[in-house]
Amino acid sequence: MRQSNTYIILYSAAITVVCGGLLAFAAVSLKPQQDANIAMEQKKNILASVITLKEGDDINEIYNKQVKAFVIDAQGNVVEGMTPEKVIVAAEYKKTPKERLLPVYEFRNDSGKVEYAVMPVYGYGLWNNIWGFIAVKSDFNTVQGVKFQHAGETPGLGARIESEEIQERFKGKSIFENGSLVSINIQKGEGNDYSGNPHKVDGMSGATLTAKGVNNMLKDYLACYENYLKKNVGSTKQASL
Amino acid sequence: MSTEAVAEVIKEKKAEPLFSKKNRKLISNPLDIDNPVTVQILGVCSALAVTTQMKPAFVMSLGLTIVTACSNVAISALRNTIPSRIRIIVQLAIVSLWVIMVDQILKAYVYDVSKQLSVFVGLIITNCIVMGRLEAYAMANKPWPSFLDGMGNGLGYGMILMVLAFVRELFGAGSLFGFKVFASLGIPYQGNGLLLLPAGACILLGVIIWVQRTINGYRESH
Questions:
Q1: Does the pLDDT of residue A189 top 60, yes or no?
Q2: Fewer Cβ neighbours under 10 Å: the N or C end of chain B?
Q3: Complex prediction ipTM
Q4: Which one of A15, A23, A157 would you mutate to disrupt binding with B, by most B Cβ within 10 Å of its Cβ?
Q5: Mean pLDDT over each residue of chain A, to the nearest integer
Q6: Which of B84, B85, B97 sits opposite A22 (nearest CB)?
Q7: Closest partner residue to A37 among B94, B101, B108, by Cβ?
């Protein structure tokens, strides 16, 4: 009986149903907690791209107090009725640049003046998607900080985009040159000094293709944000939104 | 054998204490003379990969112990119903069930560790220790001894992982569980980069195997 085909088919069907049911239950019941973690991580990354977070800082409190988030379109106009939480950057990435909805997180000081603007970026590295944030100072040109993450870059090589060391190199670089968008480029080779050049960043040895991915991602997304940035370049924008 | 006699045999077996000498061996053997990593040389790939820091190594050990113990119990409970022709697939299904469970729970409660471990937690399913224990032990034994066997092997694996991670993190990065040991003692220490590479872990594992076999006199039988 235990070797008959019917028994085997019924047995495997039963195993499938039981295992599937248990997994579905676990996935559904743990989803709110997991989503909360992801949202927290997002807030943490936004803040980490502009300020240095200390151990024990209340991320939610700082975020709610200082960050003003809204969504713009490629023309730089605010899209009413949309909140950044509703925008899935990975899904927007698949649209053409002109159609994308673009979240912006403005970090304001206590008097409501914009200190930094944080913009999400998304692209493709060597093996899988890469994403992150780029933050500019109130001149909307100088980079305050970047935060990159990846799904499958090579550990020790391309995965270094996640490291502090690489991200530190973007600080103080500028996006525009005489009013036109130049973006920032990671160079090939490592150990060169690009401190004099506002658009070049020292490369990662052995990870030229990941660096290329980062360059494309920045160029692609900064072009989307170009109108928004240009509107604000040089202005001392007050909280009006 | 009459039904009475069968009942008697079952009763006699039930009377065996939970931690009889035989059962304690199930836990203690995998820690030393039957260690899954150093003696059976199983699960080495993950042992080399996750041991650069103590924290992921600890979570990985915990995850593997839970998966091995739970799948052992499940397979052992089902052992009399599993058709032998599809037993490997049934085992795989049970193991992957637990692996995904562990992965989901990590994602919900220790998110930052799960990010570091994501690939390796998924790879527990291909960890030879888990399937090996199911095939070699749980298919032929009762749930309780199977549970102990799973625990023992998970702990044996975890022990080696913790030793590896301790040495690698301490001498490779100068910290333990992320706490800068040398810096807090005021000793300037330049981390040994080799220990942070998989190759360094491989050498270290070799040393551990050598030391262990010198102490307990284990020899491969030919």
A1: yes
A2: C
A3: 0.73
A4: A15
A5: 83
A6: B97
A7: B108
